[in-house]
Amino acid sequence: MGGQSYALLCLLVNIVNFLARTQLEFFSLCAPETLNRHSFPAGFIFGASSAAYQYEGAAEEQGKGPSIWDNFTHQYPCLSLSLSLSQINRKNLDSNLKHLATIDDADRIADGSNGDVAEEFYDMYQDDVKMMKDLGFDAFRFSISWPRILPSGKLSGGINNDGINFYKNLIDELLSNGGKIGITLMSRWMVPYSDSGVDKNAAKRALDFMLGWFLNPLTNGDYPEIMRTLVKERLPNFTEAESAMVKGSFDFLGINYYTADYAADIPSTTKLNVSYETDSYVNLTAERNGVPIGPATALSWLYVYPEGIRDLLVYITKEYNNPLIYVTENGVDDWNNKTLPLEEALKDPMRVDYHRRHLWFLRQAIDCQLNQEQTMHFSSISCIWDTDLLIFGNWVTEGKKLRLKLGLRGGKIPTPSVD
C-alpha cells in the first residue's frame, strides 16, 4: 500500500473509548510493530522530561522557600468534598472554584499526598540521570523550582546559592552524559468544529492566542495581527529595541503536546465579558455532536488525539519559518488501579500504544520535511497525584526500589547498528 493511502487508512481507524471502569482500550495500531530508532532519521533524539514539584522533593532543604503548591497541599491536605480534581474542567471551572471557596478549611487533595518527598530527585539526581542513560535516552527536559532559587519570591529577598548550585550540578551531570537542555512552549492542536470558513478561521485564531502569543514575537518581533485587532489597547506594544531583542532569540523551539480541541467560531456581534478567555471569540470543546475528539483519559482535559502532534508540528514549520523543534513533553495518564498486581501494572500496554501512535504521526511529520529532531515523554518516573490517578511515567516505585515498566524494559531504545 502506498504511503499516502497508508496514512489515510490510519486516519480512518475508529478508536473505542473505554474499558471497564473507564480505562482506555486502543485498537491495534496501523503503524508497524517494529517502529524504533531505525524508523527515524539519523541523529533523532529521544528523551524524558519532568516537573520540579512532582519530582524533586526536598521541599524544605537547603534554603528552599514554599511554593504555591507547598502551601496549598499543606493547608488542604485531604479532599473531603465529593468533587474530585479530575472532574474539574473548563466548562465548570468557575462554578467549582466558587464552590470550593465557600467551604472553610476544606481538604482538597484526595489522598493527603504532597510533593515534600516526591521522587527524591533533589538528592538522587545522579542515579536518575544514570538510569535514563542506561535506558538509551539522549536528553532530559527538567523544570526549575523558582522558590529554590528565590525563597521569598523576589530578587530583593535574596538568592539561594544552594539552589543555584543544585541546578548547576544537574546541568553538569547531564552534559557529562551527553544531554541537551532547552525551554518549552505548550500548545494543543485546534480542529475546526465544522468545515465552514468561520470555524477554520476560529481554529487558526485559537492557535494564535495559545501559541502565537509567545512564538510570534520570537519569530517576527510582535504579537499576532489578530491579537492586535481583537485585544486592542489592552495588548502591550514592543519598542523597536525590544522587538529587535526578542526576534530570533532562540536556538530551538520546545513544544509540549498532549491533546486537541474542536474550535467553533463565536460571532463578533456576541456580547462577551472582556477577558483573556473571551478575546479570541472561539469556543473550545472536546466534543462534537456528543462524540469526544478522542478516547478519554483519567484527566478531564486530556483526550487522545495522536494525529494532532503531526498537524501541530507541520503548522509551526510553515507558520514560523521552519524552526528546529524539540517535542519536550508528550504522554498520557492512567487510572491508579490499586487492586492491579504490580507485575500487571508494569506491562503498561496503554502507554506503549499511546507512544507508538504519537511516534508514528511524528514520523509522518518528519516526512513533510519539518526541522524536527527530538521527542521526550513526560515523565521519567511515575507521578502520583490524586488518589484516583496514576499520571505519566516509565518507572514505578516499590518501597525504596524503582521498577521499570515492561513497555520500556522490553523495548529499550537501541542505538542503530552501522548497517
UniProtKB/TrEMBL annotation:
GO biological processes: carbohydrate metabolic process; glucosinolate catabolic process; response to salt stress
GO molecular function, one term: beta-glucosidase activity
The keyword Ubl conjugation is assigned to this record: no
Signal peptide bounds: 1-20
Organism superkingdom: Eukaryota
Keyword list, A-Z: Hydrolase, Signal
InterPro entries: GH, GH_1_N_CS, Glyco_hydro_1
Pfam family, one: Glyco_hydro_1
Record-stated family: Belongs to the glycosyl hydrolase 1 family.
Protein name: Glycoside hydrolase family 1
Species the sequence originates in: Dillenia turbinata
